[in-house]
Design goal:
This protein has about 140 residues and is mainly alpha-helical. Helix 3 links the parallel strand 1 and strand 2. The chain is globular and about 40 Å long. The two termini are about 30 Å apart.
């Protein structure tokens, strides 16, 4: 963001629900709600022909935002996905390479048990390529 600001671009970042200074709501933590929330921000600021950039979950959010809200409102010039998750990560019959539901159940259990510890544990592995054969210790 600082790079784009230094080049004279207007930069807008939103706190995703349940993150940062946003209200810590218990529902709506899915890509559809995240995209709708981003659309509400873009609409409130009357952004037009914006470049939407998303990393990780934000990439899935941008993909869904563009698909659902982009063209009709004329608010998207380009989309940039950086190491993005797909909008559907769950293993299903239509997405056999997805992540099994048990993994998400474990995340929910860990979050409910100790939210702060969960956010310490996730980046320490196995995450961010931690379990790849070619990783360096």
């Amino acid at each position: 963001m600082l790079f784009f600001l230094s080049k004279g671009y207007r930069v807008v970042a939103h706190d995703r629900r349940g993150h940062g200074r946003s209200e810590q709501v218990a529902d709506g933590h899915d890509i559809d709600h995240y995209a709708a929330d981003a659309f509400a921000v873009a609409k409130a600021l009357d952004l037009k022909n914006a470049v939407h950039i998303g990393h990780s979950t934000g990439g899935g959010e941008v993909a869904r935002y563009v698909a659902r809200h982009g063209e009709p409102a004329g608010r998207v010039a380009k989309a940039v996905l950086v190491a993005a998750i797909p909008p559907l990560m769950l293993k299903t019959d239509d997405n056999p390479e997805g992540t099994p539901m048990e993994v998400f159940d474990g995340f929910r259990t860990a979050l409910a048990g100790n939210r702060a510890q969960f956010f310490r544990d996730v980046p320490s592995g196995p995450f961010y390529g931690f379990n790849r054969e070619a990783r360096r210790p």
